[in-house]
Request: fold
Amino acid sequence: MEPPRTIRVVAAVIEHEGRYLITQRRPTALLPLLWEFPGGRVEDAETDAAALKREVFHRLGVEVEPGQMISFVSHPYERYVVDLYLYECRITAGEPAPLAVNAFKWVTSAEFDQHPFTPADEASMNKLLGMG
Reply:
């Protein structure tokens, strides 16, 4: 039996006035209606920064400037492993709109536990908040 494939995923931690931008997955997506930091899969020969810019623009219609990596977590799912890299990002152009997500919200870190997150994002948040 071959080992499960690993998928490299990047996500943007966008903070504004003490609130963080989170997105809800579409009802038809894998892990439907769970919340996550905006981002997505890194394509072959693509940098993390390029993937962040492409994925956040695709999902929310905003341009972001990626900063430093703030967290990494590897999370095994049933058929694959997600290597999730979280980066500090700031919006440089546009206002968020739910283009390829079910919804988005600005929430404080204290409100994270009111939103069911994907397992990989949950592990990252625990790390971010010093609980992991």
The mean pLDDT is 92.
